Amino acid sequence: MVADGNASDRGLRLAAVLLGLAGIFDAVAGAADLSGARYVSVADGAVHEHDLTGWAWLHLAVGVFTALAGALGPLRRRWSTSLALAAVVIFVGLHLFFLTYHPIRTVLVLGLALAAARLLIINRSRAVA
């Protein structure tokens, strides 16, 4: 049987990996969007071009912040868990606005981030002040 401390450590490490993967994936996708083609839409017989450079920079910054918060998550400190949960909230909020442009990517990274948040919340009570 596994000791309770080891199970808690494994949960925090898994949360860190999931959050780190979501952050890295988002940062890479944000960097790719910076050099990618523009988005266009056709409405009322006209073609509209959308510049999403600001969103791409925001995804890059939030992705790096989320990956960093994921790396600090397993420290078993309340502040590191709170930082990781705050990163998840910001991450989810940003992706809900961007859902229409990248629905598949959004669903994938939100699954990773929300699974990490669940693990962090479960193990939060075991964190040291």
* Fraction of residues in β-strands: 5-15%
Number of domains: 1
Main β-sheet description: 2 strands, antiparallel
Write down the overall geometry: elongated
Query: Quaternary state, please?
Result: single chain
Number of helices: 4
Low-confidence stretches: none
Order of helices and strands: HEEHHH
Whole-number mean pLDDT: 86
Number of strands: 2
Structural class: mainly alpha
What would you report as the Rg, rounded to the nearest angstrom? Answer: 17 Å
Protein name: DUF7144 domain-containing protein
Organism: Micromonospora chalcea
Transmembrane segments: 55-72, 79-98, 104-121
Keywords: Membrane, Transmembrane, Transmembrane helix
Describe this structure in words.
- This protein is mainly α and 129 residues long.
- It has one domain.
- Helices cover 73% and strands 8% of the residues.
- The protein contains four helices and two strands.
- It has helices at residues 4-35, 53-72, 78-97, 103-124, and strands spanning 39-43, 46-50.
- A two-stranded antiparallel sheet has the order 1-2.
- Strand 1 (39-43) and strand 2 form a beta hairpin.
- Helix 2 runs antiparallel to helix 3 (78-97).
- It is elongated and about 60 Å long.
- The mean pLDDT is 86.
